[in-house]
């Protein structure tokens, strides 16, 4: 049999193994920067594989290592999975639901870990069938800024060996199990958070003429910020500004507060426009507040950059996915306004980040970051096989 059929056969035979891994991880989720037991679990599995070496506790609880082929010809490609869970209380009736109250793998990172471990096991089994090395990265803290990707890069994971390509994927409940989707070029948005404190003058609600009402000021700022998208952004460049929190301090039915806090996000794809939008947020907030006699303090926290999929690598990945999964199971995707710190890896190395379908038949979709999130576990068989196939092909 050719390498593709061997990989498919091994993926099928290891399916029950990765299901057990995923279910254990799902029962024992850990938040960002707390992935100590998750890291221990991964390392215990890696110790079972032949031709595998690794280092742990990188940038916290990160793990980076290699599956070595029959010879080291200097070539290297990378596969990455994220490790952390979310502060969500699981509401499913699953027999392997989270045992850590208030913490849940509601974004599928348990699937990512188990799938990559399955791919590493396949590559270990086939190590005499390829030359070079496959780097694997288990990354902590994807869900919490500044993110584990940039911290692992700063810690030097590419200092001595820089892969020629890096692959990763994300579970996608809107897409049927057995399918993948991908998009070349700009794929996922940059994400920045802004925090605005509006300072007015509180007082009795029945005497508004004596007050400077920060609620009124904040309301005008909320509306005015929407014009950044509608009147300043290039209509061909996706941009989103969302206020997620509107908080008053000390107000009640008959009390005008002195302070209101606004918290929100801006997401887009162009770095120059991103910085211009930051200036607009600050100017509009400060000037609007001043017009009412109030003050606005604005802080903008730069988050993850936009994720760019290398054009050539993504085209090759698509062709290989068609070969491995079939034409009908490989979909072209549009841009997403969600964000991913894998974007930092993509700034260092030609990257392809794709989506793995995890929908369970015709059951209702359970969205990412929801308390009832679930996946069709069969997706991991396709995922680990495809990852191994992509890595070996990229080394040839």
**CATH structural architecture of the largest domain:** 3-Layer(aba) Sandwich
Indicate the CATH class of the largest domain: Alpha Beta
| Gyration radius over CA | 24 Å
How large a portion of the residues is in β-strands, by DSSP E?
A: 25-35%
The count of domains is 2
In DSSP terms (H or I, runs of 4 or more residues), the helix count works out at 10
H/E topology pattern: HHHEEEHEHEEEEEHEEEHEEHEHEH
Strand tally? 16
| Coarse structural class | alpha/beta
Give the name of the CATH superfamily of the largest domain.
Zn peptidases
**Distance between the ends:** 18 Å
| The CATH topology of the largest domain | Aminopeptidase
Q: Rough shape?
A: elongated
Task: Walk across the major sheet and give the strand order.
Answer: 1-2-4-3-5-16-6-15
């Amino acid at each position: 049999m050719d390498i593709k059929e061997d990989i498919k056969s091994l993926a099928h035979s290891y399916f029950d193994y990765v299901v057990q891994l995923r279910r254990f991880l799902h029962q024992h989720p850990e938040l960002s920067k707390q992935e100590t037991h998750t890291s221990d679990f991964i390392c215990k599995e890696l110790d079972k594989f032949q031709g595998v070496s690794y280092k742990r506790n990188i940038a916290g609880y990160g793990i980076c290592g290699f599956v070595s082929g029959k010879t080291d010809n200097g070539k290297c490609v990378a596969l990455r999975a994220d490790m952390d869970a979310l502060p969500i209380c699981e509401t499913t009736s699953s027999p392997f639901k989270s045992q850590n109250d208030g913490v849940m793998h509601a974004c599928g990172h348990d699937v990512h870990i188990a799938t990559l471990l399955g791919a590493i096991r396949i590559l270990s089994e086939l190590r005499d069938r390829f030359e070079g090395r496959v780097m694997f990265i288990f990354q902590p803290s994807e869900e919490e800024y500044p993110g584990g990707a940039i911290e692992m890069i700063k810690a030097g994971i590419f200092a001595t060996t820089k892969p020629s390509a890096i692959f990763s994927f994300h579970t996608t409940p809107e897409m049927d199990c057995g399918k993948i989707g991908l998009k070349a070029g700009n794929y996922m948005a940059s994400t920045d958070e802004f925090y605005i404190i509006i300072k007015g003058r509180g007082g009795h609600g029945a005497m508004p003429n004596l007050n400077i009402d920060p609620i009124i000021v904040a309301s005008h700022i909320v509306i005015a910020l929407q014009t950044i998208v509608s009147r300043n952004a290039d209509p061909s460049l996706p941009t989103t500004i969302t206020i997620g929190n509107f908080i008053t301090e000390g107000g009640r039915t008959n009390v005008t507060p002195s302070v209101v806090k606004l918290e929100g996000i801006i997401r887009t794809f162009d770095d120059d426009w991103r910085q211009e939008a930051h200036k607009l947020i600050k100017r509009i907030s400060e000037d609007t507040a001043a017009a009412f006699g109030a003050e606005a303090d604005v802080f903008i926290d730069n988050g993850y950059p936009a994720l760019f999929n290398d054009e050539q690598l993504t085209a090759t990945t698509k062709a290989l996915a068609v070969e491995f999964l079939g034409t009908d199971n490989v979909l072209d995707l549009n841009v997403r306004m969600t964000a991913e710190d894998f974007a930092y890896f993509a700034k260092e190395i030609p990257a392809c980040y794709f989506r793995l379908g995890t929908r369970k038949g015709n059951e209702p979709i359970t969205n990412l970051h929801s308390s009832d999130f679930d996946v069709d576990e069969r997706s991991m068989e396709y995922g680990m096989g495809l990852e191994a196939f992509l890595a070996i092909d990229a080394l040839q």
